[in-house]
Amino acid sequence: MESLIQRIKALQESSEALEPSEEQRNSYTSQLSTFTNRFINGLSINPAYTSAKETKGALAISSTPRSFESLLALYEQEVASKGINAASGGHLGYIPGGGIFTAALADYMADVTNEYSGMYYASPGAVSIENELIDWMKVVFGFPKEAVGNLTSGGSIANLIALTAARDHHGVRLDRIPTSVIYVSEQVHHCIQKALRIIGLEAVIIRYVPLNEQHRMKAEALSKMIAEDLENDLHPFLIIASAGTTDTGAIDPLRAIGCIAQEHDLWYHVDGAYGGFFILTESKKEMLKGIEMADSLVIDPHKSLFLPYGLGAVLVKNKDAVFYSHHYTANYMQDAIQEHTPINPADVSPELTKHFRGLRLWLPLQLHGITPFISCLEEKLLLTRYFREQLVNRGFAVGPEPDLSVSYFWFPKETAQEDRFNQALLKELHANGQVFLSSTRIGGKFVIRMALLSFRTKLATIDTALEMIDSAIKKVSLSY
User: Fold this and answer.
1) 230 vs 220, 240, 294, 315, 404, CA distance in Å?
2) Would you place residue 328 in the very low, low, confident or very high pLDDT band (cuts 50, 70, 90)?
3) Which of 4, 311, 27, 19 lies closest to 149, judged by CA?
4) How many beta carbons lie within 10 A of that of residue 444, not counting itself?
5) What letters, b where the CB count within 10 A reaches 16 and e where it falls short, cover 172-194?
6) Which of 49, 96, 137, 298: disulfide with 158, CB 3.0–4.6 Å?
7) Rounded to whole angstroms, how far apart are CA atoms 132 and 316?
8) pLDDT at 333
9) Sheet with 438-442, side-by-side order of all strands
10) In the structure, what pLDDT confidence band is assigned to residue 329 with cuts at 50, 70 and 90?
């Protein structure tokens, strides 16, 4: 026994390194604060993109302990300064959010206290915060109190939950799959097809509804497609509309599509991951009317509420359909099962182990109120308009007036040269990197895409982008 106790004490002494002293904790947080301030203060002058890759082997796991100071320097050199700087206001590429500082404080709090937010029994406060946020979103989007919701890692899992509920509500299984029909926009986000494959609907019939000149789904074409499929003894069961497509930021005619869904008793899902929260603005709330008609809705606070990556949300009106897929019990969790408790987030999600991600939204809303968030959204809409007008003044062609803050442009050239010229132009813009823009293809044409959403994107950012574009045009024109 004495030998056993000695071994335990020896291991205890070694493992105590995992619990830094108060003095060590203060040293770590002080160093981290210095790094944080240096990083944030440098965002306005450092590039939004660099093509540099990580140094081979620099990030390999070491068996010997390293100092926190050296690891911070390594992180700054190999991670924070390479690739796309998603925290930069110059990130105008892939629907950025920006990552507000107070959300990072919330994550720190959640990690230190290590709250488990899957079951009410384990952390009544954490689950209550998540449910309060879900209830707030129900009010924002006009969903009934009886609806259920979940805070997810992002739009992909949120869409997965919603589509699973639609599948189970309509009993789309086995031999019925090949004759079941889903209707989507031609610009539907690729996570939809991914989710369908994951939930066993890879063989389902997918109809891509034509778009109008504003890249919105044509409601009349949708109605006609459904009628034809019914005449051919197929089984339409799901319509997926977009409230802000990734490519062009288009908002489908939500009310008209909702009426069609109701007429045929189809599940109506709206993917508002990018654009949903623009309903908070005076200028766009009318365009988003009809979103309340959806049976399920996805929105991403880590996009249009400017949070760090890792927080999406889903709202579903049919509680039974969600519970059918996700509510399971186990003997070892019998203490957690109590009557008259709020809905457990783990019962409406594939996740049982659930990070307390709700705090990263709850704390900023409580600290700042909603007004700064709304102002930021309105600002991005006006900046998009300003950017487009300045591009037109420089001889660029632009896409149709955008519904939100995503648009595209290209420099007109002879047909044979146009794509190659604009590809070369984007390559030059990436080489500069002060502001990061991306590209897409619209109707087969190569175009440069702008996505203004970061809370740090300001008027000065757009002016910097325009200067960068002016310089790039001069360089590329020498070869054409």
Assistant:
1) 16, 18, 22, 29, 35
2) low
3) 311
4) 6
5) beeeebebbbbbbbebbbebbee
6) 298
7) 16
8) 46
9) 397-398, 406-410, 445-451, 438-442
10) low
Rounded to the nearest angstrom, the gap between the alpha carbon of residue 311 and the centroid of all alpha carbons in its chain is 7
Cα separations in angstroms, 55 against 75, 77, 78, 176, 318:
12, 9, 7, 52, 50
Amino acid at 327: H
**Between helices 459-477 and 415-432, what is the axis angle to 10°?**
130
Structure tokens at 222: 């949708």
Token duo for residue 44: 């306005």
- pLDDT score recorded for residue 338: 52
Tell me the pLDDT tens digit for each residue of 270-314.
999 999 999 999 999 999 999 999 999 999 999 999 999 999 999
- Annotate 408-442 with b (16+ C-beta within 10 A) or e (fewer): bbbbeeeeeebbebbebbbebbbebbbbbbbbeee
Give the separation between CA 436 and CA 95, rounded to whole angstroms.
Answer: 11
What is the tens place of the pLDDT at every residue in 380-398?
999 999 999 999 999 999 9
Q: How far apart are CA 284 and CA 278, in angstroms?
A: 6
pLDDT classification of 336: cutoffs 50, 70, 90: very low
Q: How many CB atoms lie within 10 A of CB 28?
A: 14
β-pairing, 180-185 vs 148-152, is unpaired
